[in-house]
Amino acid sequence: MRPSHAPTALFQTLVILLAIAGLASASALEPGQPTAISDEVAPGGVLFQLRAEAFSSAEFSLQAGTTGRTGLSAVDEQLASIGVYEVVQAFDLDRNRAAKSAAGLDRVFFARFDGDLDPRTAAARLTPLPEIEYAEPNGIWRAFFAPNDPLYPSQWAHDNTGQAVSYGGDLVGTPDCDTDTDQAWDLQTGDPNLVLAIIDTGCDLNHPEYSSRIVQGYDFVNNDWNPSDDGNHGTACAGIAVAAGDNSQGIAGVAWQIKLMPVKVLDSDGGGTWEGVADGIVFAADNGARVLSLSLGGGSSSTVENAVNYAFGEGCALFCATGNGNQSQLSYPARYANTIAVGAMSPCCERKSPNSCDEEYWWGSNYGTGIDFLTPGTRIHTTDRLGSAGYSSGDYFDEFNGTSSATPHAAGIGALVWSQDPSLTNAELRTVLRNTCDDLGASGYDNQTGYGRLNAHQAVLAVTTQEQGACCYADGTCQYVEEADCPTGDWRIGVTCNPNPCPQPLGACCFADGTCQYVEEADCPTGDWRIGVTCNPNPCPQPLGACCFADGTCQYVEEADCPTGDWRVNLTCDPNPCTQPAVACCFPDGSCTFVTAEACTQAGGSPQGYPSDCDPNPCTQPSVACCFPDGSCTFVTAEACTQAGGSPQGYPSDCDPNPCPQPLGACCYLDGTCEYVEEAQCPTGDWRVGEPCDPNPCISSDAEDEASLPAEWALTRSVPNPFRHSTTIRYALPEPSSVTIRIFDISGNVVRTLLHKAHKGAGYHDTSWDGTDDASHAVGSGVYFYCFETAWGHETETVILIR
Questions:
Q1: Quick one: pLDDT at residue 346?
Q2: Per-residue model confidence as pLDDT tens digits over 23-37
Q3: How big is the CA angle at 395 (ends 393 and 398), to the nearest 5 degrees?
Q4: pLDDT at site 672
Q5: Of all helices (H) and strands (E), which one includes residue 600?
Q6: Cis bond before residue 575 (omega within 30° of 0)
Q7: 527-539 mean pLDDT
Q8: N vs C: which end of the chain shows fewer Cβ within 10 Å?
């Protein structure tokens, strides 16, 4: 990306992305919509890196890129087959060319093509070539979110007194379960010369909490110099890290006086391409940002990893969110070696999980190998876009959650430490932050909480020049104290605790293959050294691998958790490495899906046995519409229709539009009157199938007869069920209540939120589901669950969707 030039390949790629994103709901960035990691890719292009020898060969020609070729015959042959018409360098090389060349960024290209070819297919054609280091589609990452929370009155992240409000409304929290930033401010509030970059949806450039401290950023979505926020997420992240303190307004951020660089790489719906994120990282590193905060992510990208390694090589510290899926592996970019992986902590000193004390049962912080530490990530106060454009109608927001909020906490603390000691390298900064954590969970480092709870005060104190010395204790730990405070240790004046000057006792050295050796720390340079533990039993984390089961499913676990499957070390489950069963599943409408026999039966299909597949379609095609007494229609065979109690409508009828006679029902109007008609004759009323008007079943909006209201809350089975196009869910409320209705798949993932804390009056209510997810994409055939939540409890029913 070249900010000073005309729009490049990146900008045009993002134009396509924005067109796609526009199909989603305008509220895509609202808290309350958990973001799942997906395999989204931007169309019309593919990223690739040439090997060094191919790049330096006489045949390679950068000038040939305008014609979609490179001069390398084998590469050009595949580019031609893909339909590539232009090849451009992915990164701006005008600044710091030598360092970018050393990092391999000059060998990364973006190839643009027209047509409907899947970019994954394009990447697969280029990958096997000996001239290609890697090829990948231009994937899309999204900001990490967690659902909505009640308001709470104060910032427990800085000083926890047990004041956080749980989802159920109770006060919760473990006193002093915070990052001790209030104590760190006694030593440091931020160096005005230090720059922190928020790489996100942009920032509100006029917010009084930091507007006077903004340095020039860039907008890689619209390819201009105005990185204003149109998605709220970046403004919320910025406030946590850099909002002013002690200024008699709003909230206090972590580092009050440092500079803020807004870098916009995500659009208003929270989506951004890998190329855009990579460009944002390189821009921040090239333009003076030392701390980079990234509350976003998804799957792995070699292009972004190249950018991460370049920024790290330039001395930057990259703080990245682990993700909100409660999964036992980190999202990218947090999983890269040269980033600092930040997980979310609840107010009760525990990894945020569905069972943590805040009672938010629908999300948790990702964990696993590589996590560094936890910081507060639920019920966080922060800045909001000014006026009514943001999450709330004011200028501040007190419901920001997830690893998105944990990451800028950590980035701000990193900025405080660097403000106190600018001479630290980025690797030394990471070591200081790890070594000064308050241990949580299992003793020492663990995959749930990393090194523990990040402690701003201890981290800043560790790099503070004092008239103190290092006190060495028997366990090899070191503490900065005065001599009088070291009565049982070995006090060493004039030395620091970083690196630790104390003699280290023997401990267990864990290696990447899960083996263990009992040695001193100095003899464990490439392993994970754990003080005070032995190698019998083995304390080391076992490597994760892919566990393949007989049904072809895959789970990413340790070997001990795969007793009945085929465990494959160092493989991941994305893409699934397991052998898939070969059974075709036929549905009543004649459609075919290639799934396991069990999943087929569960979804109402008919397994066609082995070795059938779905190309060509082996399923019997019906050509008759079946009418049921309730007026619903299903497209099935005549035999199946008769068996189900329906009436075949002959050939070649289908169910769009519905050919079935509609039964009479009661049409209730707002004035409480009732008319016995067909559904089509009740466009403005509430039509109740099969109910007569004598006695009148309708409830007047101002009726005083409470006997006509439901006696208790209830959820009924949806109609029709199974359904093809739409199903209606009915529920009853004896008095006004807040109502939430969500659709879940058989894995427990939220597919669609139909209502979220909507206020509904007493009476009978309907809502419908059209078989799409929250992004308006049609979901597949199968069994789904709808959960109904009220002030009195929750109820769940099943519904079957047939495509």
A1: 87
A2: 222 233 333 333 444
A3: 80
A4: 65
A5: helix 597-602
A6: yes
A7: 75
A8: C
Distances (CA, A) of 238 to 311, 393, 469, 777: 20, 18, 37, 32
* CA dist., res. 541 & res. 544, Å (int): 9
Q: Of 303-312, 677-686, 698-707, where does the model show the most confidence?
A: 303-312
- Contact yes or no for 382/407 (Cβ under 8 A): no
Q: Would residue 708 show up in a list of annotated catalytic residues for this protein? A: no
CA distances from 96 to 202, 304, 313, 508 (A): 25, 18, 12, 43
Active site residue 446: no
What lies within 8 Å, CB to CB, of 565 at 6+ separation is 547, 548, 549, 550, 555
Active site residue 404: yes
- Asked whether the beta carbons of 258 and 196 are under 8 A apart, the reply is yes
Instruction: Rank 305-319, 460-474, 525-539 by mean pLDDT and report only the highest.
Output: 305-319
- Within 8 A by CB and 6+ apart from 75, the residues are 50, 54, 126, 129, 131, 132
Catalytic residue from among 233, 381, 409, 457: 233
Q: Distance between CA atoms of 521 and 541, rounded to whole angstroms?
A: 18
Per-residue DSSP letter, 34: P
Catalytic residue among 346, 404, 718, 781: 404
Which segment of 60-64, 155-159, 403-407 scores lowest on mean pLDDT? 155-159
Whether the predicted pLDDT of 124 surpasses 90 = yes
pLDDT digits (tens, 9 = 90+) for 64-73: 777 889 999 9
> What integer pLDDT is reported at residue 263 of this predicted model?
97
Token code pair at residue 616: 């060509």
User: What is the reported pTM?
Assistant: 0.53
Q: Check 106, 200, 230, 279 and give the catalytic one.
A: 200
Which of 798, 688, 679 minimizes the C-alpha distance to 743? 798
For the chain, the first-to-last Cα distance in angstroms comes to 43
Here the tokens at position 128 are: 């096997």
Whether residue 323 is predicted with pLDDT greater than 90 in this model: the reply is yes
Encoding tokens for residue 597?
């026999």
Q: Quick one: which of 655, 652, 623, 657 has its CA closest to 640?
A: 623
Tokens standing for residue 635: 């497209």
